[in-house]
Amino acid sequence: METGSSIFPQSGMQQPLEQQPLGSGAGRAPDDDDDGGGGKGSMDGNAVSGNPYAGLVSRLRAAWLSGKTRPIEYRAAQLEALGRFLHEKKQDILDATALDMGKPPFEAEFSEILLCKNELHETLNNLSHWMKDEQVDRNLATQLDSAFIRRDPYGVVLIIGSWNYPIHLFLVPLIGAIAAGNCAIIKPSEMTKNTETLVGEVLPSYLDTDCFAVVTAGVQETTRLLENKFDYVFFTGSPSVGRIVMTAAAKHLTPVTLELGGKNPCYVSDTCDVQNVARRVAWGRFFNAGQTCIAPDYVLCSLEMQEKLMPALREAITEFYGPNPQESPDFGRMVGDKHFQRVQALLRSGRVAIGGQTDEKERYIAPTVLVDVQHSDPIMQEEIFGPILPIVVVASVDEAIDFINSLEWPLAVYAFSSDDKVVKQVLERTSSGGFCGNDTLMHVTLTSLPFGGIGSSGLGMYHGKFTFETFSHHRGCLHRGMGREAINSLRYPPYSRQKLGIVRAASEVKRKGACILL
Ligand code: NAD
Asked: What's the 175 CA to ligand 1 centre distance in angstroms?
């Protein structure tokens, strides 16, 4: 992992941490002796002494404990400020992501601006409704009382982002964290330096810096940051780092959401509109130069379908990117040299049927299709995360399903068929974070659908209301009246069979019918 210039020696923490743009008005950079600012450090029993970020975490916790983030007016004002950030800094975001990874402006505007705004608008439109206490059923004993679920903020949350959608992947969780009334530290990826700098320098000027901070950090600093006790950690990245984050959180019994990755299969049945399939698969695979966590990672189809798909994919790629995709303004680049080299090495699996050209200087890898790929080839052992689409031949839908089920559960499963029964069969007999029939990626455009993984592709979910729910503790509350002690005393000792009968009648949950299918 590249850590950029902010790597610092274990012995002297101050130098790089002083460079960290904690935002205008965010106060001084933390140091080893920081007590949390304003002498409040001692009130936070969870501060890790000697940790360079302890002061920052304490300061945010003090702000959270003050109750400042709870009123809906406060939450809405911070969310509106995020909207202004997206609106006013749109061009800077497009420029930064273009510099970082050649992200085409269309793709950046769609994924980093539009989808974030959708999340923001969905949240602002519904926040007052989501925040309301949810009244729940009561038993006979509590019939006259108030029973409700309160969505409580957790406190100080940590959001660690990934580089492939460097704005979207911290901003969408942040929307939910703010909506739910939390304070937050945001740690964008250090891989996309231009975007990281923009976020570190500009975002804090839009937000209340008592409650929100951006920490720019590489692996070593993030390791130190994770030593602190947070009330929730939301991580987006690889399964291997997900384990590290979860282990660090477990030390404090901190709940986590892990948005991870995996190999997303794409089954193409023999009955389908081949040209439409080719376009939809090529778009999903080559969007962002293949660096999308829910990109179709490989195609499973019959030999006959592979023969039909090949010219259709070639046509789709030319239609999208012209005869030389390297000259297309609509095709991105690998994010870094290590990623370029890793993905380039995967071209040695199977046989290149389309594309295959590379240019190390530009970190360019052409949209590529590989055939004759074996299950044991290196490209089938890891998430590709680049513009290569291997095709694995299977004899039937059953074999495709068995293949999918022999691997770790992915973030998405795709199935294409003109026969709905085939699509439903793949849905029913596989498991994955999300599913999309007859298209790729499009399920992520719906704020109404939960987004997240299962097994090694992740833990928890977000988007739309689910982000708000993720950052809210569901607090079960019962508010009773002070009187009616004669009824209440039936549960107190000395016990008797007669009292037990009455207590049972007042609190028992009865089965409604004998048939479980009703
Ligand atoms: P990564 O795990 O290397 O890095 C993610 C974040 O973790 C970065 O901010 C990085 O600074 C930090 N980090 C890295 N090593 C760390 C360590 N040892 N301790 C603490 N923090 C550390 O992942 P990446 O390269 O940024 O992203 C690629 C992976 O992320 C792919 O697997 C992809 O599928 C997945 N991803 C998932 C989603 C999703 O929504 N599920 C979205 C984007 C990317």
From this structure: 20
